[in-house]
Amino acid sequence: MSDKWLVGVDLGGTTTKIAFVSFYGEIVHKWEIPTDTSENGKNIIVDIAKSIDHHLDELGETKAKLKGVGMGAPGPVDMDNGIIYEAVNLGWEKNTPLKDLLEVETGLPCVIDNDANCAALGEMWKGAGNGAKDIVAVTLGTGVGGGVITNGDIVHGSKGAAGEIGHITVMPEGGFQCNCGKTGCLETVASATGVVRLALQALEESSEDSVLRSGLQTEGVLSAKEIFDAAREGDTLAVSIVDKLAFYLGLAIANLGNALNPDRIVLGGGVSKAGEVLLSPVDKYFNSFAFPTVASSTAISIAKLGNDAGVIGGAWLVKNKLD
C-alpha cells in the first residue's frame, strides 16, 4: 500500500490545484487547472477526473497506482455523506453530493472536507505543525478561514461549520459589514481586503504624512502588501494600521487558545507572507489576552506549505480516512 499515490485536490473558485502525493506526504507531481463555473459548475468534477487521467498517462502510470482522492472544497461539508452544503462561488446548489459525483467520474474512492480544514491538516502533517496533534490554523487571504485540530483530527461540529474563525466577532460595536450578514467579524479587518479597509479608514481620519497616502493618490488603489512593506520600513501610519489588525487577530486567537489550548496556532494565507512585521505584534496581543498557562504553552508560527497545504491535506484524508 505504501507504494501507492494519494491524490490531493484543492478546489477553488478560480483554479483547482491537484497533486499526486506519496504515502509519506511528499508531492510527486502537482499542477492546476481552471475551475469552470459556467453552467452552474456542471463541468468541474468531469474536468478534474479527466485531468487526473491525463497526468497519469503523461507519467506512464495507471489508475491502479492511486489509493483514492481527497478533496478540500470551499464551504461547510457533511463528511459522513460527502455532501457540500453550499458552494455559491462554484454555482452549485445546496447539498451537492460531491463525494458520489467525484467517485463516479474518477472511479476511485473519495473523501471530502472543507478547504481550510485540509490546509490545516496539511500544515499539521508536513508543515508548521511540526508533529503537534492540537493545532489551530488561521488562513488570512481574501477572507479569513480556519481549521481546528484536536488529538490529530479535524473538529467539524454538528453542521460542518467548526473553525469559522473569520466570523468571530471582534468589533461588537461599529464594526464593518461582513459578507456573512453580520458586522464586526474578524474577516472584515484581518483579511487582505480587511487591512486595506483599515488603511483607508486611517487615511480618512488622519492627515498624517504617509507613503500610503501618496501611493493611493498616485495609483488610486492600495494593496495589503504595500501596507506591510510600509510598516516594515517604519512608516508611522502603516505601523499603526498593522498594529490594529494585530490587536483584533491577537484577541481572536487568544480566545481560541483559551478555549482549546493548542500546541500551535499557525497563520497562513497571503497576508501571513508579511512575516515578522505581522507575527510580532500578533504575538504581543495574544500574550496579553491569553490565559497565562495558554500564553506560555501555545506557540504562534507562520505556515510553511503555502499553496501546497490544501493538496497535502487532501492526501492526508486519503491516507487516514479511506479504508
From TrEMBL:
PROSITE patterns according to UniProt: ROK
Protein name: Glucokinase
Pfam family membership, one: ROK
NCBIfam families on file: ROK_glcA_fam
Transmembrane residue ranges: none
Organism: Rossellomorea vietnamensis
Keywords for the protein's UniProt record, in alphabetical order: ATP-binding, Kinase, Nucleotide-binding, Transferase
GO molecular function: ATP binding; glucokinase activity
GO cellular component, one term: cytoplasm
Family of this protein: Belongs to the ROK (NagC/XylR) family.
EC top class named in words: transferase
Keyword ATP-binding: yes
InterPro entries linked: ATPase_NBD, ROK, ROK_cs, ROK_glcA
E.C. number(s) listed in UniProt: 2.7.1.2
A biological process term (GO) from this entry: glycolytic process
